[in-house]
């Protein structure tokens, strides 16, 4: 019964929160309108999500988010140091081909987005079979170690989050 009313409960909650943030205040009308959007939009878009990914909310997701936020802050300082104190000729920019074990498009998208959010790296492409991710990195002394780091810090938790 609950699945019929809220086919995507996380999306419904997110829509309510985003609506309240856009309204820049919490009022009874704002909550009612956000709840209305939160119920109706997922209901109308349900046919477009036939194989919805199963996401495990919990400690792993929280640790992943904290790790990503920490990495973004640290990478900002690292990139600033590279820009300010390293000559262009001394940068070791590389294209990395990362084999991925993630299988759902949503999980691969989260991995690619995470990599692109971290300054100094950008996801450029996913192979046609979805088994490799092409990433450009600004300064990589050891490509093999960098691929292992990305797989351990980002892909391994995503494999547990997207079961």
In terms of topology, how is this protein built?
Elements: H1 2-5, H2 9-23, H3 28-45, H4 59-85, E1 94-99, H5 105-117, E2 121-126, E3 132-137, H6 143-161
Antiparallel strand pairs: 1-3, 2-3
Helix pairs in contact: 2-3, 4-6, 5-6
Main location: membrane
Protein name: Na+/H+ antiporter subunit E
Keywords: Cell membrane, Membrane, Transmembrane, Transmembrane helix
Task: Give an account of the 3D structure.
- The structure is a single chain.
- With 163 residues, the chain is mainly alpha-helical.
- The chain is 59% helix and 11% strand.
- It has helices at 2-5, 9-23, 28-45, 59-85, 105-117, 143-161; strands at 94-99, 121-126, 132-137.
- It has a 3-stranded antiparallel beta sheet, covered by helices on one side.
- Helix 5 (105-117) packs across helix 6 (143-161).
- It starts with a helix and ends with a helix.
- The relative contact order is 0.13.
- Belongs to the CPA3 antiporters (TC 2.A.63) subunit E family.
- The chain crosses the membrane at residues 12-41, 61-85.
- Pfam families: MNHE (PF01899).
- It is found in: Cell membrane.
């Amino acid at each position: 019964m609950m699945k019929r009313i809220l086919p995507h409960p996380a999306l419904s909650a997110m829509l309510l929160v985003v609506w309240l943030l856009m309204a820049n205040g919490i009022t009874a009308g704002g909550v009612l309108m956000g709840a209305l959007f939160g119920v109706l939009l997922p209901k109308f878009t349900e046919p477009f999500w036939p194989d919805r990914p199963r996401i495990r909310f919990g400690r792993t997701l929280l640790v992943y988010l904290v790790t990503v936020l920490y990495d973004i802050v640290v990478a900002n300082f690292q990139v600033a140091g590279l820009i300010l104190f390293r000559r262009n000729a001394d940068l070791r920019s590389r294209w990395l081909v990362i084999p991925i074990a993630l299988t759902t498009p949503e999980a691969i998208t989260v991995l690619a987005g995470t990599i692109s959010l971290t300054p100094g790296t950008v996801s450029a492409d996913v192979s046609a079979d979805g088994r490799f991710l092409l990433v450009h990195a600004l300064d990589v002394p050891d490509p093999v170690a960098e691929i292992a780091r990305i797989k351990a810090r980002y892909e391994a938790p995503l494999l547990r989050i997207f079961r």
